[in-house]
Design the sequence.
């Protein structure tokens, strides 16, 4: 009959062996991190030393007009689009320069698990779609130096952000425009 101390040691040893056999996740050659600095959220909270993870595929052409932004959904990373990115697929790196961002709180970008106090764990602030839009925009403009002509109604507009921005930047811009015209 096994004593409880012996059983505990046996299970602990088995755990160590199992953990030692688990392979480490492979390095992602496409993933990069962009330091946002102290990042002010739409809520007013400031995430210290914030960062956003992103991946690029393909080459930016000489005209610098083949960039496509592909944001991940909440809690996911750019690998959620692996079925779309590749030779002959919808997002073909031979044609496009694809920038896939990893949203806040996914474990690679600033997240509850990698942000120091006072915003660690359950104290991590609520993130809105516009916060992710602002971070993605900074990756495009500050890190990758992508700029586009601005339509008169949207100064600083970047077409690569357009689809993503429909839920964030444009809504934010229009709601501010409506508020300012109402006063």
Sequence:
């Amino acid at each position: 009959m096994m004593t409880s101390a012996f059983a505990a040691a046996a299970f602990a040893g088995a755990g160590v062996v199992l953990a030692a056999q688990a392979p480490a996740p492979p390095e992602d050659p496409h993933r990069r991190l962009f330091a946002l600095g102290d990042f002010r959220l739409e809520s007013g909270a400031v995430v210290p030393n914030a960062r956003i993870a992103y991946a690029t595929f393909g080459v930016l052409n000489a005209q610098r007009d083949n960039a496509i932004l592909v944001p991940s959904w909440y809690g996911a990373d750019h690998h959620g689009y692996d079925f779309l990115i590749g030779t002959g697929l919808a997002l073909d790196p031979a044609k496009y320069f694809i920038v896939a961002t990893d949203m806040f709180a996914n474990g690679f970008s600033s997240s509850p698990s990698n942000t120091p106090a006072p915003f660690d764990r359950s104290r991590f602030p609520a993130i809105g779609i516009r916060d992710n839009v602002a971070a993605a925009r900074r990756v495009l403009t500050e890190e990758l130096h992508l700029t586009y002509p601005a339509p008169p109604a949207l100064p600083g507009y970047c077409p690569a952000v357009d689809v993503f921005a429909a839920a964030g930047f444009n809504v934010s811009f229009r709601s501010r425009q409506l508020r300012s015209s109402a006063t």
